Amino acid sequence: MTDHHTAPAFGSTTEAGIVTVHCSGDLDLACAPRMRAALLTPIRDGVPGVVADLTATTYCDSTIFSVLVELHRAALSRGVSYSIAADPVAVARPLEILGLDRLLPLHEDLGDARAAVAAHPESRVS
Fold first, then answer.
1. Where are the domains of the chain?
2. Angstrom distances, CA of residue 86 to CA of 2, 31, 35
3. Domain 14-118 class?
């Protein structure tokens, strides 16, 4: 059997004060610190909203799920609207199995996640 791994990649864009952090490839323990930093920095900087774009993620391990929960808590504590656009197979389904879909602000696509963040500027909590 051949292992097929997709290297993780991170990038960000900002539109109307909302920072979208694009996380793609196989996300696991090795890249968790980079992902945490990429998403936590704008939250700590107090931007109005942050979207974690995991629509191009091909694999997530439990470390990444822990990072998503940590980021959600950080956003709540700082009044930053936060949302996750999740690949249905690699991200959303495992989060549903774990029951984390009841805690985390998950959306099927990036447009919905951005709209959810933009819709809550007064409470700044998604």
1. 14-118
2. 26, 18, 15
3. alpha beta
